[in-house]
Structure formats: C-alpha cells, structure tokens
Amino acid sequence: MASTPSFKCGPDTPSIPGAIKLAGDNDQDGIIDIIDLDDDNDGILDSLEGGGDTDGDGIPDWFDLDSDGDGCYDVEEAGFDDPDNDGVLCTSPVVVDGVGKVVCIADGACEDDPNTKQSLKT
Hints:
Layout: E1 3-4, E2 13-14, H1 46-49, H2 74-77, E3 112-113, E4 118-119
Antiparallel strand pairs: 1-2, 3-4
C-alpha cells in the first residue's frame, strides 16, 4: 500500500491495495519461464517435452526432471551428461544463454553439445 501525504492542510490519502504478479523462473537460472526455452535445464527444449504430465505427479513435463517417473532423470535418458547426478545438464550451477539454454561447454564438463547432439571432443 502506498500513500500520498498532504504537505499542507489535508489528510494522508492511502491508495487501494494492488497485486503484483512476478514472472516465474522454475529453474532459477535468471531467465523467466515465458522466455526460457528449457525451463528445467535438463537440455531438452520445452517444445519437445510438451505440456503434459506423463507420470501424473502434478508437475508439467517441461518442469519435471524425471517426467516419466521411472527414477532416471530425463537428461540421462536423452543421452546427455549429468556428472553431478542432479537431473540438470552438466555440472551445477549451470550457465545459460539469453534464452535459457544450458551452455555447459564453458567449463568442459560435458562432452556433447545438447543443442546439436554433436561431440565437442577435438
């Protein structure tokens, strides 16, 4: 609530309370979900994961690190590296680009580029 104080001869007039809705950032990578192409940083684009709830746990597949509920993280099922076994591509904390795709080649923690599925070894 904000108010406008009267500087001379008047009452303090409070405003009507308002609501502020903040944009979500499910993976907390600094890219809001509406812009983020990979909302759970598992290396699989949201457009491929879809909006369903495959395992019925109430978490949409694009937020769920184990969308089929089989105990194996999606990042591993997709064939990507997860050296610290946290369900997130590469080693956490991850670095992302301007649209939320993980850039794990910066520290050499991954052998494959998930965006092209090509080997980074030279």
